[in-house]
TrEMBL record:
Similarity comment text for this entry: Belongs to the peptidase M14 family.
Protein name per UniProt: Carboxypeptidase B-like
Covered range of the whole protein: 118 to 424 of 427
Keywords: Carboxypeptidase, Disulfide bond, Hydrolase, Metal-binding, Metalloprotease, Protease, Signal, Zinc
Organism whose genome encodes this protein: Bactrocera dorsalis (Oriental fruit fly)
Cofactor (UniProt): Zn(2+)
Domain annotation Peptidase M14: ranges: 6-303
Active site (UniProt): 269 (proton donor/acceptor)
Amino acid sequence: RLGTERYYTQAEINAYLDDLAARYPSRVSLKVVGKSYEGRILKTITITNGDGRLGKNVILMDGGFHAREWISPASAVYAIGELVENFEENADLLLDYDWVVLPVVNADGYEYSQESSSTRLWRKTRQPVTINGKTCYGTDPNRNFDFHWLGKGASSDYCSITYAGPTAFSEPETVVVRDLIHTYSERGIMYLTLHSYGSYVLYPWGYTSELPETADDLHEVGLAGADAIKAYSGTKYTVGSSTGLLGEAAGASDDYAFQAGFPISFTMELPRGGIYGFDPPASSVDRLVKETWVGIRAMGKKVTEKY
Ligand code: 0X9
Ligand code: ZN
């Protein structure tokens, strides 16, 4: 198991995935799905129960969209560890479903935020944009998806923290997630993207205050996660639509996955911690990733029963 006593680099996380693939070849497979702007390898881990049945339903999960939200990759990695190394206790989640996880989407930003205290709060990717001789770095990957791109809550200012990018899917990292969403849109049931902070389970829409027709189903599955976490640790999550709870923010991956065919799509905003909210101390990683797993597990379980 990768420890929970500190945060790990993207390279260490990839090495852990390699280690799992070597140790559990019948249940785990890896795929290089692309490269970040700076050339870091992005790889997914597909977790099965090893029964060889093809075409099962899929739960697609990612972490590390926003660089500074370190508890997100940590939680994705912990979930991977549970599904693979604690397989016996989680076999119910893998009977009719495969899980596909990309733990660090914005690998360049994540590494940059680990470089020094002055870059700790970096959010965007690292691809530069130069206009009239002035350069600003990065695009908000969660404003870069081509569904109501540059709508409400997204900025066209290339130096803004919510910059939607020069075009939709201008970032290699969001292209990777787009392609994963389309690869699994036929059999994908739940898309779950891990962010921080605020302790929310958010469902579509995030570009409009309108609710989808299936809002009750989304709410029910989200509540299963929130209730499980409350019972486990006492942490209170709020469940609701993205726009209802946070206001419009268009061009995000959750809306994109939902419109592409995933009937369940959530942004999970993990709890705040530390001085800025994005920086829970290393000493609280263990507690947070464990309670987050309880929530992910409960939502996954609910999905396997409902769909
Ligand atoms: O604004 C975001 O991208 C997410 N919050 S964060 O603080 N992690 O940046 C929320 C996204 C919610 N989903 C949509 N607005 N579609
Ligand atoms: Zn985020």
